[in-house]
Design a protein that fits this description.
Aldehyde Oxidoreductase, domain 3, 3 domains, six-stranded parallel β-sheet, 11 helices
Length: 380
């Protein structure tokens, strides 16, 4: 097992000093962190040089893991409620979020149950005998695309490790009204107490997957692909982006750390740069982040040309109507990938896809997806 060492220096400095040892199926290592930076030693059987590594419940560290002679790089920490491990991805290489881990799911369910149960379910504890066993089925009350069933299973297991669970549908599967999704047997108290938390996760995540699947179906036969955005429920981004993939969509950047996206406000701050703000921004991004893709937002054909000339990997075509999108795609002429954004709905997405853009980003699939109708029916 090769030991890789590097030094991280933070963009922010509000974190106090701490030391933490890390052990997992993928990694073992130790980090010593101060507000000025972190020294990190990592041992891994994986040869991939890029990793995102969570090392503390308050800290998420992303950076390039380099050989000892490779030097250190700057990293951006962000606050998270829980920590997890996954490899960093680039949009052209890995279109989907890393699979959710059992630890992530368990932590989210544990928090949700604590919020709901508080000092105890007074109704269930007062009325249902501890010795009573029963069975129930989780049922779709409308057509949907399933996502998040593992969260429901975890909720029931947390209340009763002996509960019997049988999946009747798979993640990403499209089911009709009345379809059984999960069969549950065991302690009645545990099932009653866990019921709402289990349903909340599956209803919400299946809602995201179902709406995503509607957009994917609407552009079937075109070369475009549906992307999500960062417009997600705080603390649920990984879960909702996972649900997007269950619906057949692709993930855009996971956060601010894994793709350079130069937007209108960045360009406004650089308006005095020569030869133009886009060229200056792309050049600086290439120098600072040579291993990341660079995307540039453009709201005019002039900016599209500047972004293509500057060597952007992806050009975000912001709030352009289909006729202008066609012109932009023709102007780019394959020099970069193109992404349409803004004004996207189920009514407009087909016409946008038919302009020839590579990607269509849709914030609505996460920020406006409604929870689908799913019930837990107890059976005799």
């Amino acid at each position: 097992m090769k030991v890789i060492r590097t030094t991280f220096s933070f963009f922010k400095s509000e974190f106090s000093e701490f030391s933490h040892s890390l052990e997992s199926p993928r990694f073992t290592g130790k980090i010593h962190s101060t507000p000025q930076g972190s020294n990190f030693a990592l041992a891994s059987e994986h040869s991939a040089p890029h990793h995102a590594v969570g090392l503390h419940p308050r800290l998420f560290v992303f950076g390039r893991v380099a050989a000892p002679n490779g030097g250190g790089v700057r990293c951006a920490p962000a606050t998270l409620a829980t920590f997890f491990l996954h490899r960093a991805v680039r949009i052209a290489q890995a279109p989907f979020v890393e699979p959710l881990t059992s630890a992530e799911i368990a932590a989210a369910v544990r928090t949700a149950l604590a919020e709901d149960i508080g000092s105890g379910d007074v109704t269930t504890l007062a009325t249902v005998p501890d010795s009573l066993n029963t069975s129930a089925v989780m049922v779709a009350r409308e057509p949907l695309t399933l996502a998040g069933i593992a969260f429901a299973e975890e909720a029931f297991r947390k209340l009763s490790p002996a509960v019997a669970l049988e999946r009747a549908a798979s993640e990403g599967q499209k089911v009709e009204r009345g379809a059984v999704l999960l069969k549950v047997s065991g302690a009645a108290r545990a099932m009653l107490i866990a019921e709402r938390v289990a349903l909340n996760f599956v209803q919400r995540l299946s809602g995201v997957a179902t709406l995503t699947a509607s957009y994917v179906a609407a552009i079937k036969g075109t070369s475009a692909q549906i992307l999500d955005t960062r417009k997600t429920t705080p603390g649920w981004r990984r879960f909702e982006k996972y649900a997007v993939t269950c619906g057949g969509g692709r993930n855009h950047r996971i956060g601010l750390f894994d793709l350079v996206l130069i937007k209108d406000n960045h360009l406004a701050a650089l308006r005095a740069e020569k030869p133009n703000a886009i060229a200056a921004a792309v050049k600086r991004a290439r120098g600072a982040c040579p291993d990341l893709k660079v995307e540039v937002e453009a709201d005019s054909l002039d900016q599209v040309e500047q972004a293509a000339d500057a060597g952007a990997d992806i050009i975000l075509l912001d709030n352009m109507a289909p006729p202008l999108l066609r012109k932009a795609v023709a102007l780019v002429a394959g020099r970069a990938k193109t992404e349409a954004s803004g004004g996207v709905s189920l009514e407009t997405v087909r016409s946008i896809a038919e302009t020839g853009v590579d990607f269509i980003s849709v914030g609505a699939i996460t920020h406006s997806a409604r929870a689908v109708d799913i019930a837990l029916d107890f059976v005799s």
